[in-house]
Amino acid sequence: MKRKKRTSLLAAVVAVCMIAAGCGGGGGAAGGGGQPAEQTGNAGSGGSAEAGAGGGQGAGGGKILIATQTPLSGPQSNVGEAIKLGAELALMEQKEDFNKLGFDLQLFPQDDQGDPKQGVANAEQLVSNPDVLAVVGHYNTGVAIPASVKYEQGNLVVVGPANTGVQLTEEGKKTVHRICARDDLEGPKGALYAKNQLGVKSAFIIHDKTAYGQGVADEVKAQFEKDGVQILGYEGITPGEKDYSSVINLVVSKNPDMIFFGGLYPEGGILVKQAREKNFKGYFMGSAGLASSELPKIAGAAAEGVVFSSVAGDVTQSDEGKKWAAKYKEKFGKEPESFSIYGYDAMLVVLHGLKEAIDKNGGKKPSREQVLEAVHHTTDFQGMFTKVSFDEKGDNKYASIFMYKFENGQQVFIGKAE
Fold first, then answer.
1. How many CB atoms lie within 10 A of CB 119?
2. In whole angstroms, what is the distance from residue 79 CA to residue 3 CA?
């Protein structure tokens, strides 16, 4: 008799557990987009969050996740992590403010690996999680463009700290924004600097066949042709390769005043190293994709004198910026990269919009549409470095271009490109 009672009790407990499991939506997928931290790039992020439903619409209550989408693994992780850390610092500084409003604000970092397919897969997960109200990202235009299709479907606002490809904001998606300049501003400014300041009369242009690299290379090429700079070659390379001898041999045979490279620092470092090894004496120039402390580590002594334009300015040019950089280093144990401050300012724009949306919603957790509306109408917002006003396309009216060079293994700020 006792055995039967125990059996009945056990069966009842099992039944209750099964019902509870069923209501949870099945394992780790509760709330949509709930992946283990190690799969989403959350491990060791400090302010990271686990995906989950939660966060009801009651007054002053609930969890709010702000995602980042950048490469946190692979060859581009140096800058991808820097963007994430900048965003994390901004969020952590305001976390208590949101706690007072009754919200648990958390960072939800995603590793897009610099891969369009992974970026899209991550975007799908973010859209399916109702607690995710905004995204700071991406680093790569070629990842941001396909991922933006998913954000648009989910009314999930995105503020880009580094995407420069013209196509991104020309497609008419209402969710897409960026605080940095576009290729059609950076390319011409860089080309004018090469002609007017460096005296370049001939150039060989190389690009990495990506939306970003080829996009900025095309803009430089067009400006050079307009200004009478002779184009001695225009070639694409495949990212990830380690030997670019064939294109370098072609460059050396043409003997241009400059090699311009449209692409990122892993390939840029290899190209300039191999060009110097083959006795190329001219200038080597690129754009914001070269803005990484990793380039001198890849190129070695060949990095000396490499010039690049960037959509990111040098925050340490002001006293307040120096204090910010010191705070960043104290928090994370490393110096900020060029795009760290843009990750920070992009997050500030998001949080400013989020607060406005909460206020307009009577202190309740806002919808994605309400957050999107508030962010999209950002006007004359002053971040730590960047002033932001979005136009109808989502571009920043105050975006500028800056020039740098590498000296003694360090990025040296030259000034604003005029």
1. 29
2. 64
Q: Encode pLDDT of 268-282 as tens digits.
A: 999 999 999 999 999
Cis peptide before 138 (omega within 30 of 0): yes
Identify the CA nearest to 372 among candidates 194, 210, 132, 201: 132
Beta bridge partners of 23: none
Which letter does DSSP use for residue 361 in this model? Answer: T
Name the E strands within 18-137. 63-70, 104-111, 132-137
Name the token pair of 327. 């705070």
Phi, psi of 176 (to 5 degrees): -90, 130
Chain centroid offset of residue 371 CA: 20
Residue 286 bridge partners (DSSP): 261, 308
Query: 310, 229, 300, 312: which is closest to 271 by C-alpha?
Result: 300
DSSP result, 5-48:
HHHHHHHHHHHHHHHHHHHTTSGGGTTSS---HHHHT-TT-SS-
Q: Which residue has the tokens 């933006």?
A: 148
pTM for the predicted model, two decimal places: 0.83
Compute how many other C-beta atoms are within 10 angstroms of the C-beta atom of residue 260: 30
pLDDT tens readout for residues 284-327:
999 999 999 999 999 999 999 999 999 999 999 999 999 999 99
